[in-house]
Amino acid sequence: MEIQKAxxxxxxxxxxxxxxxxxxxxxxxxxxxxxxxxxxTKELHELRExxxxxxxxxxxxxKSTAEAWNDVKLTSDKIWDDxxxxxxxxxxxxx
Length: 95
Fold this sequence. Notes:
Blueprint: H1 2-30, H2 34-63, H3 69-93
């Protein structure tokens, strides 16, 4: 169970960091042209949705039994990678 606790703590910290990065990107989006702002706002909205999904998955991890742990972790890792790539992609567009 210690591994699960450490994994949850790692996920919570990363989700908080990504949330802050998305906040910063949203602020930058306001400074772009109207067309770009619409596109960036949509991308950021999609990232927020993924972040919410990851938070929900984190709740599943807390409730998972030892038997279900591996399945939940695999799904969480896939969601994790998707969010990581999404945040990096949007950040690159703002540079």
